[in-house]
Amino acid sequence: MGCLQNHLLKPKQIELLKTKSEKKFALLIANWKEEEILERMVQGNLERILYSNFQIILGVYPNDRPTWEAAERIQSKFSQVRVIVNDRPGPTSKGQLLNFMVRSLLNRKDPLKSSYDAFLLHDSEDLIHPLSLRLLNLELERADFLQIPVFSLKTPFFQLTAGTYADEFAEAHTKIMLVREILGAAIPSAGVGTAISRRLMQATLKENQGDFLNEHTLTED
Fold first, then answer.
1. Average pLDDT, the chain
2. So what's the pLDDT on residue 1?
3. CB-CB contact of 120 with 220 (8 Å)
4. Of the candidates 130, 120, 101, which has an alpha carbon nearest to the alpha carbon of residue 192?
5. C-beta separation of 54 from 46 below 8 A
6. pTM of the model
7. Cα 80 from Cα 77, distance rounded (Å)
8. I need a labelling partner for 211 at 20 to 30 A (CA). Which of 140, 158, 197, 217 fits?
9. Which burial class, exposed, middle or buried, applies to 195 when counting CB atoms under 10 A from its CB (0-12, 13-18, 19+)?
10. Cα–Cα distance measured from residue 58 to residue 37, given in angstroms and rounded to the nearest whole number
11. Do residues 133 and 151 touch, judged by C-beta distance below 8 A?
12. Do residues 188 and 147 make contact, with C-beta atoms less than 8 angstroms apart?
């Protein structure tokens, strides 16, 4: 997953992003049987992201021991990583695990662990653009819900399912999102790359009896 091309931002715009005070982000990553790629993803993104005030929150299941153990190893290695173990065995839906992760973060008594300004959804295979959090940090001053562009990595031509998925994302994120924003219509969420302000998250939880996602759908889109 990629988020933003450097050449679309002028040097002055990049400097503006760097001058803004950093809001605190919780990067939510729900995991099921991701033990083989989890550490590589976390370490790569921690090295790549040009932003300091964030934590990567890894959600795991109690009956997925390999992923849970991998997440615990990562947490012990990186101070910016926290692990949350679901209260249900998996797999459930991604929405259910993400709901539990958000409730756990907001219900913590330690103010240093619950004072997140925004929540950002990502997947365990995502490559996060170095400037994406800086861009979201700026745009959250005018919006409570943001979707940054998402692009699939290149796949061999014979992987038809992945190719169709890539085509749909390319069209949605280079055309549909832009048109809908210009029209003032609701912008669809791809799940990954979606940022939600703390204010909107709390309002949504209150409106939906403690959930911000529908737990009965297979994806969080």
1. 88
2. 37
3. no
4. 120
5. no
6. 0.88
7. 9
8. 140
9. buried
10. 13
11. no
12. yes
